[in-house]
Design goal:
Blueprint (H helix, E strand, L loop, with lengths): L12 E2 L11 E4 L4 H8 L2 E7 L4 H5 L11 E10 L5 H11 L13 E15 L2 E5 L4
Amino acid sequence: QIQGMPYGNCLLLSDGPVNNSTGIPFFYVTPKDNTVTDLLKNPMASLTLPEADGNFCRKNVIDPEDPRCARLTLTGQMVTVPPEEVEFAKQAMFSRHPVVRKWPRSYEWFFMKMNIEHIWLQSWYGEVSPIAVEE
């Protein structure tokens, strides 16, 4: 009933192993998830990350999802990680989320990543600043 309609989902992500962040979001996904089957048909996606560790929110004891806390939104295409990057993606995901090693193998897990096309930083209510992808 919602085919063709946008909707959100929570997925584990990693941008690299601890002490080797790349800025490229990697995901460990299964084709049994409707989000993944949709992304395989239309790879355009957005990802919003709250300011979990920022000084303002921590100092003022404000929930990171409060609109006063900064949010970074990435948009781009979700693609299957090519074979030459799978080992890096595995290290990235498993080092930050060790629990995924125990997920049932029958779910046909594989790695996807976002090829980032646009970045926006929202640092207050409604105020959005574009950031160059190269940065």
